[in-house]
Amino acid sequence: MRKLLGAVCLSFVLFISSAQDLDYYLPDSITYNPSIPKPKDIIHHEVGEWHVTHDRLVNYMKAIATAAPERIKLETMGFTYEQRPQVLLIITSPKNHQRLEEIRQQHLLLSDPSKSGSLNIENMPIVTWIGHSIHGNEPSGSNASLLSVYYLAAAQGKKIDDLLENVVILLDPSFNPDGLQRFSTWVNQHKGKNLVTDANSREFNEVWPGGRFNHYWFDLNRDWLPAVHVESQNRLSWFHKWKPNVLTDHHEQGSNATFFFQPGVPSRVNPLTPAKNQELTAKLGKYHAAFLDRIGSMYFTKENYDDFYYGKGSTYPDVNGAIGILFEQGSSRGHAQQTTNGILRFPFTIKNQFITALSTLEGAKALRTEFLNFQRDFYKGVVAEAASAPVKAYVFGDDNDLGKTNTFLTMLLRHQIDVHNLKSIIKADGYEFKNGTAYIVPAAQPQHRLIKAIFEKTLSYKDSLFYDITSWTMPLAFGLPYAELNAAQFNANLLGDKFTDVQKSTQTAIAKSDYAYLLPWTELLAPAALYELQTAGVITKVATNPFEININGVPKKMAYGTILIPVKIQSMNSNEVFEKIKMVAEKHNIALHVITSGSALSGSDLGSSRFVNVEMPKVAMIAGAGVNPLDAGEFWHLMDQRMNIPLTLLEPSVFNRVDLNKYNTIVLVSGNYNELNKDKLKAWVQGGGNLIVMEEAVSWAATAGISNVTIKKIRSAADSTQMLAYANKDEVQGAQAMRGAIFRAEADLTHPLAYGYQYPFVSMFKANKVFMEKSKNPFATPFYYKGDPLQSGWLSKQNKDAVKNSAAVIVSGLGSGKVISIADNPNFRAFWLGGTKLMMNALFFGKIIDTNFSTE
Ligand SMILES: [Zn+2]
Predict the structure, then answer these.
(1) Which end of the chain is more exposed for a tag (fewer CB within 10 A), N or C?
(2) Separation of 132 CA from ligand 1 center, angstroms?
């Protein structure tokens, strides 16, 4: 290292090549099987010389599995959005490979308390999952996987034989293939023959949105629990196929940092994680320390990072009887970068990741029986825990929203949670749950702790500093009616058959009408169905008044927002209309109603002007530098994946030069819009445009004079009369952060922005400090907070005061257009389905909202 530092003082150019042959990385005094291809034989460069692209990474993994079939089996878990394979290498001794399925089956019994007692742990290998670079621009992990695989395939001698005999290694070379490919292309295309170490250079400054994210700009390291994305879904099915004892998650941190390995901050461990988990994490940490000491690498532990949110790769295993390990290597980002610790070279970062993969395997081998016993005890302990828990079951379901209920069910099944059909009607928590459309999750089952993590609310914390969100109560997020059943409410007779697969609803079979159809707006995917009808040229109307009407001779109450499709006003004949209706009903699994008479039993008749034509949304979202890519990705994903509505992704510079008249709706998620021509945007709204602004964009639009929203001021955490210890600065300030908590907003169900909601309240997710005063127009704040709206999560006193009686959503008029300001994030991580209807209402019904109000 000293020689390198000398070279740096002269200039930013590093006059030595970054290329290192394998000797730089591999442990000494080990012989390697010469018939095994080295990485360079397949990827055409040394490890660390260039950033490996995902394509080449997969080529190597295939080549080595072919060359060493007695040690390695390659599986394809599935494909990413961009159709890249997610490969998993199963690496173990030839003997273990011969009875791999038997080993797997036996291993799974550890998590079955009814059968695990008879297992002989002495004879069982430990299962260890080595995972890399879930953030695509933290590449040292994936590049190190080339070395790990080579070593495990080619090393010879007693040591490796022992390791492979005692460990089944599941090696996942890339948790995020699309991100890795995007990032590697970026850094490689900016690499010079002479390495430039100046952090200002383009190599180290990716263009928006960067390689951290997957195709839809999501952070996959928050998706282990909601499992919204294909990458997580494919991986989870293999996780539960094997239920590993250890799972490693190789990341990178800031360039000036050294190397971090868990345990993290003790007070920030999720209370559902057993203390023994942290004990074992620390035991494994001794191996990482010893291995890093040996190569002279600096590291730290027990600081900064936490184990709280179960949606992360290093935390999800903790609630599954396993140990998740987070590694964070200081990032060279490109090939070599100037840092406070001298020049940080890419090969050095790779070496640390490789070394800690080896220390993990060594530790896992040595602590094998302890880890296996821990997993068995974790699931055994759950039986007694569930028996003494006050909540005996959770019941949920929405008979007017099968789409959302099914999405929730699918999520539970991915985590191997037992769900039963509800056998009889039950009333709880103000809801009535019906058999056929409601489901029940008994608390007494192996996934007891994970069930608590999914259903419980949290209002007390050991610490006020968080690395990520502080609450994620899933039924609240989904906006699903649910209730906890205690011993007095629960009995086994409520449990119907075990639910195994989401079925298509039989109600979607529909008859032809010559008069009209009704599409209920309560369904999650009703907007997708509406848009599809609009695209097909079908004229649609929305009910701005509720009504009761005969459906097959039975009177039925229809709510605000019901979509009416009259037959005879269409330009197509009734057969053609029927074909379209049938198609959308089947495709989106929605039951539409057949209407034969326009006469309502109460409320508006179908010919009333209270049924208003719905204009087809033509939507652009500002996407590019300054915009929060996560929030932008959430809206893009909602439109593209869930609703099948095309969305123009408009760069700020493109926005500034193009004609905006082809869009009737423009969306600004949180971000910095200083580059946007605000006069042009204002003129477009005045001309009749429908502008939707969210989170920080709410403040921007208010300041720019586009909306007339007043932002509340927040009191400071400490006033100038107080003297506080300097050492407490981070803690005092950190406690004021809004990392993400859940609030109950009151909803005005008669307002077009609340169409489709069935209860006069909705759970909102807030991870910002945008608090709005209620509008002076009493009809323009359809969602607002009362005095104490916190449902779950951490909230400081100051933020509590700010959210009190504030507005969640405000509509303001400007010229003939509208601005819809949403203070919170209605699309959070794509599992906040409780906000979906609000978002879709803003898109489809923003136009029909009357914002005129006179005080005279
Ligand atoms: Zn990371």
Answers:
(1) C
(2) 10
Residues forming beta bridges with residue 712, ordered by sequence position: none
Q: How far apart are CA 89 and CA 633, in angstroms?
A: 31
| Phi, psi angle pair for 774, to nearest 5° | -65, 155
pLDDT of residue 9: 41
The identity of residue 645, as a single letter, is I
Centre of ligand 1 to C-alpha 311, Å, is 13
In contact, 715 and 445? CB cutoff 8 Å = no
Pairing label, strands 391-396, 482-486: antiparallel
Residue 8, pLDDT > 50, answer no
739-767 pLDDT per residue, tens = 888 999 999 999 999 999 999 999 999 99
Q: Distance, CA 492 to ligand 1 centroid (Å)?
A: 44
Report the 10 Å Cβ neighbour count for 486: 13
Ligand 1 center from residue 558 Cα (angstroms): 48
Is the pLDDT score of 849 beyond 50?
yes
Condensed to tens digits (0 to 9), the pLDDT of residues 401-456 reads: 999 999 999 999 999 999 999 999 999 999 999 999 999 999 999 999 999 999 99
Residue 362 Cα to chain centre, angstroms: 32
* H-type alpha helices, 259-345: 275-294
Q: How far is CA 832 from the centre of its chain?
A: 10
How many Å lie between the centroid of ligand 1 and the Cα of residue 138? 6
Q: How much distance in Å is there from the Cα of 133 to the middle of ligand 1?
A: 7
Measure 13 CA to ligand 1 centroid, in angstroms.
28
Distance from the alpha carbon of residue 252 to the mean position of ligand 1, in angstroms: 5
Q: Name the percent of the chain lying above pLDDT 70.
A: 96
For residue 598, give Cα distances in angstroms to 464, 514, 595, 601, 607.
Answer: 58, 11, 7, 10, 7
At 89 the three-state DSSP class reads strand
pTM for this prediction: 0.95
For helices 230-242 and 100-108, the axis angle rounded to 10 degrees is 90
Which tokens belong to 127? 């299962």
